[in-house]
Specification:
single chain, mainly alpha, 22 helices, 2 strands, 75% helix, 1% strand, globular
């Protein structure tokens, strides 16, 4: 333990200077901007600045890229809250309660919660990374495909929570997302499925155009259908743009701690990432809440859980990267290439051979989160007003950004068409009260479920799902997660009938 503190002190010495702080500051600013722009994911933001690091020292390069990673994970919440357009896939969950809070006139509260939950979630992830990286990586490496499959199934159980009383509609849209994942080449055998002769469908649908279409364009079309300029003017008059005082966030402390820990632990498993972490943390928070009916309608705990888990997953994703050389997320994969560019091989030897780099990186995570808090506090006063720009200006801007964001992924007009098509689907979902978020859940988990299912069958056969204790435990948790709300609802109905009878 004393060795860890000694090395961490060494890490702070490495970045204790104007130059390293400037690099971290620039990284955080670029990351926030990249995360806020729909179509630019954290991995893309890091990849765009990767060429600039070639001439830098390894430490300066990595602390700047880490700043981008941390900033981008928070940046996605800005547009999620302001215009119901998640800048990143993991910010989808933030929009569930962040945007309703803004619509209620509590814009400053929504922005403040997303900022400070991100900051503390990131710090929790960094602490776990520093003290438990090696033992946690040993647990993660022992996970078999059957355990990943069971983990993803557990992720699907959040559909019941996302749908609330309309769980049947949530299940239908989740199945729609899973079906979308079957389009393209089979990930195991390369067989064409439901491509209808369209070569652009060989890779299936890109996540970002689907996301932008469902949430951004769907929201725009739904608002245009019932547009009332007088109503917007009245809404804008009663908006509170002021961020809450720091003492306000104290009541959300356990939501942030739980979600930060959950995000970090889920982020450790390669392929899981911040999106799955956000869905699962949100589900847990709703189940533990005394007022679950407020979730999806502007619950502060929902925003806190989504953002803390998302930021906590950054520290988690770095655990297998630094200790085993296995990236825990797509952004971590870009960071892996950055390490290799500088002739550094991740693994246990990295902690021994390059302690300045490793612990300098750890220290930079604390500095990046502190800088993000400062930038976010002053910037939020401006960002929070975006949602109340005149709709005649805002709607064309959202539409333009949606098209540009979709096109920027692969420079493909097919992705633009995908965005427009899913915009219509999102509009129809809103019109008939079908939740869009389970579609994202199905898209995120579908490929992981299929790949790990096939791998399990190829390695051990059907028995592989029952011979591993952890797999069985995860299945039991999934069954309990589905059964509990059903049993609770029936008990509530029986009590209501008994009360009415008396």
């Amino acid at each position: 333990m004393s060795e860890i503190f000694t090395n961490l002190g060494l890490g702070f010495e490495v970045i204790a200077g104007i130059r390293p702080i400037i690099f971290i500051f620039v990284g955080v600013c670029v990351g926030i901007l990249g995360g806020a722009i729909p179509g630019i994911s954290p991995s893309m933001a890091v990849a765009l600045l990767l060429p600039m690091t070639y001439a830098m020292s390894p430490v300066m390069a990595m602390v700047m890229l880490m700043g981008i990673y941390i900033g981008a994970n928070y940046g996605g919440s800005i547009t999620a809250v302001a215009i119901n357009t998640p800048g990143t896939p993991s910010a989808t969950v933030t929009a569930f309660d962040g945007y309703p809070l803004l619509k209620k006139g509590r814009a400053g509260e929504a922005m403040g919660i997303s900022l400070w939950a991100s900051v503390w979630g990131g710090i929790i992830g960094a602490i776990i990374l520093i003290f438990f990286s090696v033992p946690l990586s040993k647990v993660a490496i022992k996970f078999w495909p059957s355990e990943y499959f069971a983990l993803c199934i557990m992720g699907l159980t959040t559909v019941a929570t996302l749908g609330g009383k309309n769980w049947q509609k949530a299940l239908a849209t989740c199945l729609f997302g899973l079906i979308l994942n079957t389009m393209g080449l089979d990930p195991t055998f390369g067989i064409k499925r439901f491509t209808f002769g369209v070569t652009k469908l060989f890779d299936g649908f890109e996540m970002v155009p689907v996301l932008i279409g469902l949430f951004a364009l769907g929201e725009v079309l739904a608002n245009l259908e019932n547009y009332d300029p007088n109503k917007q003017a009245k809404e804008a008059e009663g908006v509170n743009y002021t961020l809450p005082k720091l003492i306000y966030y104290w009541k959300l402390k356990w939501s942030i701690v739980r979600a930060g820990l959950a995000g970090c632990l889920i982020g450790i498993f390669p392929g899981a990432g911040g999106t799955i972490a956000s869905f699962l943390a949100y589900d847990v928070e709703k189940r533990m809440s005394k007022h679950p009916e407020t979730f999806g309608k502007g619950a502060p705990e929902g925003v806190a859980a989504a953002e803390a888990s998302n930021s906590g997953s950054v520290g988690g994703a770095m655990v297998p990267l630094l200790t085993l050389g296995i990236p825990g997320s797509s952004t971590a994969a870009v960071l892996l290439s950055a390490l290799m560019i500088h002739n550094l091989n991740p693994g246990p030897q990295l902690f021994t051979n390059e302690p300045k780099l490793v612990y300098g990186l750890f220290a930079s995570m604390f500095i990046a989160n502190i800088l993000m808090a400062a930038i976010g506090t002053y910037g939020a006063r401006l960002w929070v007003r975006v949602g109340y720009i005149k709709k005649t200006i805002l709607f064309p801007l959202i539409f333009a950004f949606a098209i540009l964001g979709s096109y920027s992924i692969k420079k493909s007009m097919f992705d633009v068409g995908t965005c427009l098509a899913f915009g219509l689907i999102g509009w129809m979902f809103k019109k008939y009260d079908y939740p869009s978020s389970p579609v994202v859940l199905g898209l995120v988990l579908g490929k992981l479920i299929e790949t790990n299912y096939v791998q399990t069958l190829m390695v051990t056969g059907p028995s592989g799902f029952f011979i591993r204790p952890m797999t069985v435990i995860l299945f039991i948790i999934s069954i309990a997660a589905i059964a509990y709300p059903i049993i609770a609802e029936r008990r509530a109905e029986k009590k209501a009938k008994a009360a009415s009878a008396t």
